[in-house]
Amino acid sequence: MCGIVGAVSTRNIVPILIEGLKRLEYRGYDSCGVAVWRDGELHRARSTSRVAELDTQVRTDALEGFTGIAHTRWATHGAPAVHNAHPHFSRGRIALVHNGIIENYEELRAELKGRGYEFISQTDTEVIAHLVDSLYDGDLFAAVQAATPRLKGAYAIAVFCRDEPHRVVGAREGSPLVLGVGKEENFLASDAMALAGVTDQIVYLEEGDVVDLQLAKTWIVAREGTQFKPVKREVRTVHAHTGAAELGPYRHFMQKEIFEQPRAIGDTLEGVVAITPELFGAKAAAIFKDIDSILVLACGTSYYSGSVAKYWLESIARIPVSVEVASEYRYRESVPNPRSLVVTISQSGETADTLAALKHARAQGMPHTLTICNVATSAMVRECELAYITRAGVEIGVASTKAFTTQLAGLFLLTLALAKVRGRLSEEQEATHLKAMRHLPVALQAVLALEPQIMAWSEEFARKQNALFLGRGLHYPIALEGALKLKEISYIHAEAYPAGELKHGPLALVDAAMPVVTVAPNDTLLEKLKSNMQEVRARGGQLYVFADSDSHIASEEGLHVIRMPEHYGPLSPLLHVVPLQLLAYHTACARGTDVDKPRNLAKSVTVE
């Protein structure tokens, strides 16, 4: 979601701030801005266009400075407009950027208005700027420490003051913020990737931290109630690979990431020569023996990967599984089980709803936690006892592709590890599953070769306004994921149902104008699925079927078939989701939408 970059240096830091924003564009935003200290005054530039336009603006205005902050904003409070864009100023003295949501901003706004502060924007962020200014008495670090205990909600902020050049202060609570340590310069960012090529010395700030950046030194204090105490945080060497953000020969990052899936799966499974609990951490063996159920917490695409895993875990490991939408879980009365393994799934490891749900589960008395995550240094990994780090690499496109399939790979390994601990996995079965997993990159390459056929379908889909996706069993979540991808990037309304539910309502929507996409692997439910397909044909619907090569489904009038290279047993979802990704991608291309940055959406959802 929103991105922050800040810096103090002896050199002009505007190019660093702009480049940092460019590296954070993948998170999604609808406005951007930069502010610097120059000649004893605050100067800024803001835009509701892309960072490239902001770059042009600062070059035209010759905006320079050695202290500054920058931001990409995804609108929550107030429309995407220049006056709502960050950085926000207070009385020409304080400049501030903010990620997150301040829940008590209306109360603070009323108080500050009563004290004479004028509000220019509709944002909750401007409240923080005025609050810091109202508490400022010559020491910005002290003013931020006085302000943050009054904020309710989630925030990461970076702020500097006209009267204190060469100083930037940051603070975080519920939203990520990192400190980058340099030589005679220091940096802040919401993501270490923003600092790639600037510094690889990174400090991950913890909840309640306030950090003071000056040229040669940094200070961190941790909040305990309303008091702050000095702390030391570990400096880590983090190599944020800049090459991952290069488009190369592909038209969009989403297309690139779809085609990177064979490599990503191979990297995620690298070094797995046997199924052992230790794949998930040193404590895994003892924890796996102690649990009697699993609770999966996730959002969006990650929720669908957890839904696939439910089928695997219950059929192979024979352990009961509940899959919960993280944003709903902590707001209902649930029945906690202290022997349940709480599994969180997140690409970024910073998803606010999932982190909050994880903390709620722990507070309910469920101590055993494991995450499947793509970022080893993320909050999710730090919060959980156990972890499996997928190795998808940086995913730029907002619509997740390779993160999803690598999550499935990690979850299948978890299934096998639990099955082995529970005495449900023989040596022969283990060898068979490992062989199939090692073959996945080759199998995925064969699926990607179907792209020309899928492109032909996309021309038809581009003229539609609605689509229906069908699947059965462990491919029902894959149908859900296919519908999500189509609606995310092409803006076509799409829904997914278990195929057996057709006659219970969605069949009313079927006519010649409604394409019905069907995931048809050659499994035990195939004959049932064929009957459901006949229900569509009898109503004049157009079927678009992804069928395994041996499923005996042939193309004819009203029935369009693309044959998958091979049936892949329980791992079939990893193959069948790829053509659905390609269908969504090429349909979006045909409709001319912004594939990598779809409207209204953000890559990393760090606010509730």
Quick rundown:
This protein has 608 residues and is an alpha/beta fold. 35% of the residues lie in helices and 24% in strands. Strands 3-2-4-1-10-9-11-15 form an 8-stranded antiparallel β-sheet, covered by helices on one side. A 7-stranded antiparallel β-sheet has the order 5-6-7-8-12-13-14. It has a 5-stranded parallel β-sheet with strand order 17-16-18-19-20, sandwiched between helices.
How would you describe the overall organization of this protein?
The chain has 608 residues and is of the alpha/beta class. Helices cover 35% and strands 24% of the residues. The strands form four sheets. Strands 3-2-4-1-10-9-11-15 form an eight-stranded antiparallel beta sheet, covered by helices on one side. Strands 5-6-7-8-12-13-14 form a seven-stranded antiparallel beta sheet. The chain has a five-stranded parallel beta sheet with strand order 17-16-18-19-20, with helices on both faces. Helix 1 (14-23) runs antiparallel to helix 2, helix 4 (125-135) crosses helix 5 (140-147) and helix 9 runs antiparallel to helix 16 (476-490). It starts with a strand and ends in a 17-residue tail after the last helix. The mean pLDDT is 91.
- Tell me the structural class: alpha/beta
Q: Could you list the spans in which at least 5 consecutive residues all have pLDDT below 50?
A: none
> What is the overall number of helices?
18
Q: Largest sheet, order of strands side by side?
A: 3-2-4-1-10-9-11-15
Strand runs, count:
25
Tell me the layout of helices and strands.
Layout: E1 3-8, H1 14-23, E2 31-38, E3 41-47, H2 51-60, E4 67-73, E5 88-90, E6 94-102, H3 105-114, H4 125-135, H5 140-147, E7 153-161, E8 168-173, E9 178-181, E10 186-189, E11 201-204, E12 209-213, E13 218-224, E14 227-230, E15 236-237, H6 253-259, H7 261-268, H8 284-290, E16 293-298, H9 300-317, E17 321-325, H10 326-329, E18 340-346, H11 352-363, E19 369-373, H12 379-383, E20 386-389, H13 402-421, H14 427-448, H15 451-461, E21 466-471, H16 476-490, E22 493-498, E23 515-520, H17 526-538, E24 542-548, E25 559-564, H18 572-591
Parallel strand pairs: 16-17, 16-18, 18-19, 19-20, 21-22, 21-23, 23-24, 24-25
Antiparallel strand pairs: 1-4, 1-10, 2-3, 2-4, 5-6, 6-7, 7-8, 8-12, 9-10, 9-11, 11-15, 12-13, 13-14
